[in-house]
Specification:
Elements (H helix, E strand, L loop, with lengths): L2 H23 L8 E4 L11 E4 L2 E5 L10 E5 L4 E5 L10 E5 L2 E5 L12 E5 L4 E4 L11 E5 L2 E7 L2 E8 L4 E5 L10 E5 L2 E8 L4 E9 L4 E5 L10 E5 L2 E5 L12 E5 L4 E5 L11 E5 L2 E5 L7 E5 L4 E5 L10 E5 L2 E9 L2 E9 L22 E8 L4 E6 L1 H15 L6 E6 L9 E6 L3 E9 L2
Antiparallel strand pairs: 1-28, 2-3, 3-4, 4-5, 6-7, 7-8, 8-9, 10-11, 11-12, 12-13, 14-15, 15-16, 16-17, 18-19, 19-20, 20-21, 22-23, 23-24, 24-25, 26-27, 27-28, 29-30, 29-33, 31-32
């Protein structure tokens, strides 16, 4: 019997064991684990989860097509309820909560006109109302909320800014940023808006601008040490934390920087122990920052600004790219996302205990929590079959690339570092083009 045949048999045994273990985990009492909750009715990703009146809302996004559907989750009953749909389907949009209403703003990929359209949801009446449209088409933009007013900032090919006042339903053009920004983040501290990093269509950005709504002026601030886009951001103790993202050459950044508006300085902090791509989510809870779904793997990383150290928390039950992540009543919810070519409707709940694992500032090796090793068998369009022996992290990396390549947000090829027959070379790399892959099969085995 060949090694490959043995692996097939052993993989089946491991798969059955994983099913038994996973089933028991659902009922585990340990608070430092992820627990499976009721799934959504519709699988979706590329939308944010928002919280209003102790309920979680998932609005629009992308599934098998661009969505206009809306779902509301009640953690007390573990029930999802389908709510009234939007008039416009959309993803890559902004969702803002203010005055007891939810506003869906701009976006792309959906109903014609969605990139300027604004809709207001009233949870009391379960109705959507079409509001005044923005002056400028926007996707991959940022939003901010200051004094009850919504600011739409930048976007693909755009440096303009506009302010929306729900009281009179009017969008007003404001002073523009000095540069075009897309795939960036905005943060609010002490009534000022900070536009950070991003991409201008040609270059990754490290520049930072501060907007004062009182004077309608932008002021250039100290730039980050690293250029980056599609990163995560967190505000804690009046400081801004920029985490991960994409930088020159589509490399994955694991670096972190802290910005202090009082001193206008950026400080490089301890990098994330595991790489973090552009598909994770950052949330703040109990004075800590949590990264969930980084690069589509199951890892959950916890950062303590007081000690500048990282800790591994319990891994999710499923890997997720671009999930919705919400914090409610001391718990973290990971909702939907995309993984391994499939869009997810599953939901997980996590109660952090801050006991964590062995991060220790990233100086120790991460625990093996991303699954067993596997034989990845790729069938090319010309019928050639290629095999790669990958560990859990390597497999997650490939699946993340495959997902992102399907929507054009990753390079058109993947690089495998070949581990056998290297001599006399320093390394052997094989480049696999996305459009040359017909199918692939994953055959898991225990090391």
């Amino acid at each position: 019997m060949s090694l490959k045949d043995k692996l097939k048999i052993f993989s089946a045994m491991v798969f059955m064991l994983v099913i038994v273990i996973s089933s028991s985990m659902v009922f585990a009492a340990d608070p430092n684990t992820w627990t499976t909750k009721a799934p959504m009715a519709t699988a979706r990703y590329l939308t944010d989860a928002v919280v209003l009146n102790n309920q979680i809302y998932m609005i629009g996004g992308h599934g098998s097509t661009t969505l206009n559907s809306v779902e509301q989750y009640d953690p007390a009953t573990d029930i999802w309820i389908t709510k009234a749909p939007m008039a416009y389907s959309r993803y890559d949009h902004q969702v803002v909560v203010t005055g007891g209403k939810i506003y869906a703003v701009g976006g792309g990929g959906g109903t014609y006109g969605c990139d300027t359209a604004v809709e207001e949801y009233n949870p009391e009446t379960n109705t959507w109302k079409t509001m005044a449209a923005m002056n400028t088409r926007r996707s991959s933009f940022a939003s901010a909320l200051v004094n009850g007013k919504i600011y739409a900032i930048g976007g693909s090919g755009v440096n303009s800014v506009e302010e929306y006042d729900p009281a009179d339903n009017i969008w007003r053009l404001k002073a523009s940023m000095s540069v075009v920004r897309q795939q960036f983040k905005a943060a609010v501290i002490n009534g000022k808006i900070y536009a950070i990093g991003g991409y201008d269509g040609k270059n990754y950005l490290g520049s930072v601008e501060e907007y004062d709504p009182a004077t309608d002026t932008w002021t250039s601030k100290s730039p980050m040490h690293n250029t980056r886009s599609r990163f995560e951001i967190a505000v804690l103790n009046d400081k801004i934390y920029v985490l991960g993202g994409t930088t020159v050459g589509s490399d994955v950044a694991s670096s972190i920087e802290e910005y202090d508006p009082l001193t206008n300085t950026w400080t490089t902090k301890t990098s994330m122990p595991a790489y973090s791509g552009a598909s994770g989510r950052a949330v703040v809870l109990n004075g800590k920052i949590y990264i969930v779904g980084a690069s589509g793997n199951k890892l959950v990383e916890e950062y303590d600004p007081a000690t500048d150290k990282w800790t591994y928390d319990a891994p999710m039950l499923a890997g997720r790219n671009d999930p919705g992540v919400a914090v409610l009543n001391g718990k973290i919810y990971a909702i939907g996302g995309r993984y391994g070519g499939a869009t997810l409707k599953s939901v997980e709940e996590y109660t952090p205990t801050s006991t964590g694992g062995t991060g220790d500032g990233g100086n120790e090796n991460p625990p093996v929590i991303t699954g067993n090793s596997a034989i990845l068998e790729i069938t090319m369009v010309n019928g050639v079959i290629k095999e790669y022996d990958l560990n859990g992290v390597e497999l997650d990396s490939f699946l993340t690339w495959y997902d992102n390549s399907s929507n054009g947000s990753a390079p058109s090829y993947y690089i495998f570092n070949k581990k056998n027959n290297i001599k006399p070379f320093l390394s052997r790399k094989e480049y696999i083009a996305y459009n040359k892959i017909a199918s692939f099969e994953i055959k898991e085995y225990a090391e």
